[in-house]
Amino acid sequence: MTASDFTGLLAAHRSIRQFHSRAVDHVLIDQVLEDSLHGSSSSGNLNMVSVIKTFDTERKAHLCKLHFDQPMVLQAPLVLTFCADSFRSRQWLAQRGARLNFGNLVSWHVASFDAIILAQTTALALESLGMGICYMGTTLHSMTEIAEYLECPDHCLPVTSMVVGWPAEAPAQRDRLPGAAWIHSERYRRPSADDIDRLFSAREVNGWNRYRSMGEDMVREMDEKGITSLAQYYTSDMKYPPQEFERDSQKLRALLEAKGFLP
Ligand SMILES: Cc1cc2nc3c(=O)[nH]c(=O)nc-3n(C[C@H](O)[C@H](O)[C@H](O)COP(=O)(O)O)c2cc1C
After folding, report:
1. Does the C-beta of 55 come closer than 6 Å to ligand 1?
2. How far apart are CA 32 and CA 174, in angstroms?
3. Calpha distance 81→15 (Å, rounded)
4. How far is CA 41 from the centre of its chain?
5. Minimal CB count within 10 Å: which of 6, 46, 108, 114?
């Protein structure tokens, strides 16, 4: 693969939420996952990750509920759940009479980063084969329930999931904040109010238009709630309500404690 092939792969990225019924090959998926771990950096090369594949229709239906009923979970032939996992490493340490470690907040971060890095490498590898993926942030909000359903042991928690399949849609490319907003030279440069106006202007228009084009019900609800900008929409009860983030943050703290990452 040349550099321009890789640039082309990045440019072709779209989150895919509609899939053909065509199955994805089990052997191919295992190969992609193994290649992706080889192709990902891993902290200390400890490989503190686990990936749980869900192909089974009934089990996907259960996962779908935990993912806030997102229909793509039912439609996609495969759900991959990426876990931060120091359970296996700790078992290995114990069996070798080594000092136990990796049951603390730092290890949670280390294992989570490994899991996220692996997830993104896997995403690119699958996209390079023509498959489509979409991450599910709902993993964070249902972490307790997903961990329980997938029978994750102590020191192992799902950090992200993605649906995988053959794309049955070709959505337009979505914009991002311009480089000037987030690429800094030598030190952090705080944006002024004018910078914020300028840097968010395209996102504000594109994002607003996208949500407003999602149907009459959506527009009516936004209007009823007095939402007049993309920023207001993002923290409204329609998108990312602060009170739910606060509640789920408490849940996450309790879960990290229960699973041995926050002694
Ligand atoms: C961590 C993470 C969680 C996400 N969660 C969801 C989700 O729950 N549902 C969904 O439809 N898309 C989800 N997405 C996809 C984003 O909405 C998508 O990446 C973004 O809108 C940009 O679109 P693009 O990926 O097509 O460029 C998630 C993406 C990331 C990185």
Report:
1. no
2. 26
3. 16
4. 18
5. 6
CA dist., res. 53 & res. 62, Å (int): 14
Atom of ligand 1 nearest to the CA of 139: 8
Spatial contact of 72 and 63, defined as CB atoms under 8 Å apart: no
Is-contact 72 134, C-beta < 8 A? yes
State the span(s) of the chain assigned CATH 3.40.109.10.
Answer: 3-170
6-43 pLDDT tens trace: 999 999 999 999 999 999 999 999 999 999 999 999 99
Region label for 215, one of left (φ > 0), alpha (ψ between -120 and 50) or beta (otherwise) = left
- Nearest CA to 158 among 232, 37, 51, 31? 51
Alpha-carbon gap, residue 199 to 184, rounded angstroms? 14
CATH classification code of 3-170: 3.40.109.10
Q: pLDDT band at 195, cuts 50/70/90?
A: very high
3 state SS of 45: helix
Q: pTM (2 decimals)?
A: 0.97
User: What proportion of the chain, given as a percentage, has pLDDT over 90?
Assistant: 99
Backbone angles phi, psi at 71, to 5 degrees: -60, -25
* Residues 115/82, Cβ–Cβ less than 8 Å: yes
Ligand 1 centre to CA of 13 (Å) is 11
Q: Is the distance from the beta carbon of residue 211 to the nearest atom of ligand 1 less than 6 Å?
A: no
What are the backbone dihedrals phi and psi of residue 167, each rounded to the nearest 5 degrees, phi first?
A: -60, 135
